[in-house]
Design goal:
Elements: H1 2-6, E1 13-16, E2 29-35, H2 48-54, H3 62-70, E3 72-74, H4 83-92, H5 124-130, E4 134-140, E5 167-171, E6 178-183, E7 188-193, E8 196-198, E9 204-206, H6 209-224, E10 231-236, H7 261-285, E11 301-307, H8 337-340
Helix pairs in contact: 6-7
């Protein structure tokens, strides 16, 4: 476990922990929350709060900021410049050059594709679980999917390996028609149809998968909060990855008519992530959700937040509009600090 966490390479991270009050202070619960394509400057304590004070285009991230206020800021953390390489590095503890997922595409060869399905790849979830933890993964997977051209090409969903996770929910986007979740009868995965919901503007949409990720994560926390063994939850959101227009409507920034529409949606997508992080933190403080935090496990839980890489400039969105990557050069896909810090 120590080796795996030592190789946790990330764009920015916050750690929040206080001494465990139970008999085993060396095994706190662990919650890792990962954003997608969020630049360092998007977080209030790293720059966005200065923009708010200056009256510049901006948005508040109070729940994520609260982790920095109550915990530790890692100011010199680095990721890979793309999603899959960062995730593969975290899963395996390997440097990108020694990791199969060294690029987003899995079509080059197995060595450039997904983590192996035959048990050869030991993940940090395997190591943590061997240390007595109950493990759960919720959200973006991106280290191998059924029907891909990588290691899972010939696998049915039911044979999809969890790579060390006792429970899993794997998603591939914001508003998809289906997702993969635990199949408890077959000890594998199954495809579950998404549901359609009525948005605030009256339109009917597939349920925003960000909400599904949070709901499943909260259920996991509630189920294992009082277990004898600690738990580990790896929560992977898609926010603020494109297409940001998938964010629920109406939203708080639609009135900012001087902003380009894509930037209004980007801000709403970022704030939606902050709200969901707040729900996770609230669940840690009140696992059974009864309004009484006598069962709080906050003091027994390590929370780490980071992004997989820097912000991107694509499909009309500019990383410069909110100064998402601060003064660092370039953005996602680039090895300059705007892409990896």
């Amino acid at each position: 476990m120590k080796q795996a966490l030592n190789y946790l390479i990330c764009a920015f991270a916050f750690m929040f922990t206080t001494p465990r009050s139970s008999a085993d202070p060396n095994k706190p619960n662990i919650v890792i929350i990962q954003a997608d394509d969020m630049g360092i400057g998007d977080v209030g304590v790293y720059g966005m709060n200065d923009r708010i004070a200056a009256g510049l285009p901006s948005f508040a991230m109070p729940n994520i900021d609260s982790l920095a206020t109550a915990g530790v800021r890692f100011n010199h953390m680095y990721a890979n410049p793309m999603s899959k390489p960062t995730r593969c590095t975290i899963f395996t503890g390997f440097h990108q050059g020694h990791c199969k997922g060294d690029r987003n595409s899995g079509t080059k060869s197995e060595l450039r594709g997904d983590l192996s399905a035959d048990g050869r790849d030991i993940t940090f979830a395997d190591v943590i679980r061997a240390g007595g933890y109950t493990t759960g993964h919720f959200g973006k997977w991106h280290v191998g999917v059924p029907n891909s051209t990588g290691a899972y090409a010939d696998l049915a969903v039911s044979a999809m390996p969890r790579l060390g996770f006792d429970e899993a929910l794997n998603l591939v986007g914001y508003r998809k028609t289906e997702f993969q979740e635990d199949d408890t009868t077959n000890n594998g995965m199954k495809t579950t149809a998404n549901i359609q919901v009525v948005e605030g503007d009256g339109s009917t949409q597939w349920k925003y998968n960000t909400f599904i990720i949070t709901e499943q994560s909260e259920d996991f926390i509630q189920s294992h909060a009082n277990d004898v063994n600690p738990f580990f939850a790896y929560i992977n959101y898609f926010n603020v990855h494109r297409p940001v227009a998938e964010v629920p409507r109406p939203h708080a920034f639609e009135g900012e008519t001087t902003w380009p529409a894509v930037e209004r949606d980007y801000a709403a997508t970022a704030v939606a992530l902050d709200v969901e992080v707040g729900k996770i933190l609230a669940r840690l403080d009140d696992p059974d959700g009864d309004g009484n935090n006598i069962d709080s496990i906050t003091n027994n839980t390590l929370v780490i937040f980071f992004s997989d890489n820097g912000n991107q400039t694509k499909e009309g969105h500019s990383a410069e509009f909110f100064n998402s990557n601060l003064h660092y050069r370039k953005f996602k896909f680039h090895v300059e600090e705007g892409g990896i810090k």
